[in-house]
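Below is how a single chain appears once it has passed through the pipeline. First comes the sequence as given, then the structure the pipeline wrote out for it. We keep one example in the README because the format questions we get most often are answered faster by looking than by reading.
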Amino acid sequence: MQTRSIGTSDLEVAPLVFGGNVFGWTADERTSFSILDAFVDHGLNFVDTADVYSAWVDGHQGGESETIIGKWFKESGKRDKIVLATKVGMLGTRAGLSAANIAAAVDDSLRRLKTDYIDVYFSHLDDDKTPLDETLGAYQKLVQAGKVRVVGASNYKGERLEEALAVAKDSGLPAYQILQPEYNLYDREGYETDLEPVAQKHKIAVVTYFSLASGFLSGKYRSKEDMEGKARGSRVEKYLNERGLRILDALDEVAKRNDATPATVALAWVIARPSVTAPIASATSVKQLESLAAATRLELSTEDVQTLDQASAWQK
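Resulting structure:
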């Protein structure tokens, strides 16, 4: 499996990221451990989480996902096999990107993760109330202290990302080397028009979230009845339209040609995008993980990519 670089850093990652939002939410501790073990067994190495995961669940405070990963590191001894990403800025008790908040939040995350360094530390959400040089200056201190290796940006607009890169260059501060945008076969326009040009211009790595459109592109939601009683059902409803169903038909066609699942094909399509380093995807069982890992081995033909591109075309 060919690895890919994160920006200009020496971090090398497999072309699939495991999304740790499920840990402590739809995957309990034991299941999470077995998924992480299987993930490493597949030769994969990039795990993404955030301090806010899973604060949206009743009775949770945030930090649940990081805590489970930390316990797994301690029990398995596999910290050195993982490129670890977490994020700061969206947890209610640690909101924003001020220098003081970043300094406190990173120590919270390190304690939960039972590690002394984070490979990739993301600004989870742009904070227009805090000067960019304050945020990047805080990251510089973390890099100098050995707590963080690379910094990244999630949920930024192209213009703000350009601005942050200019501030970093002019002030000699750490530049964002990796971007985390929403991107999948359905949600294409925002990334392709606004962020992709910036990422390519500055050689920024890109890891995409909602790579399976909250599970819609797995093909398991084809009617409103399919969504009833599902944790992610409400997120999927917006995809159930003519274009969404056309994409599912194309996924079925390409999956059949390649003896693969729709989820595998949908991720392989993202992996094949030249500007993308790796899609982020989650699983709640080792069996589900198999179809995600298979995407790193599936090389879509030109015809396959064209079929999917045409079905998912967003230009009017």
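The chain has twelve helices and ten strands.

See the next section for the split statistics.
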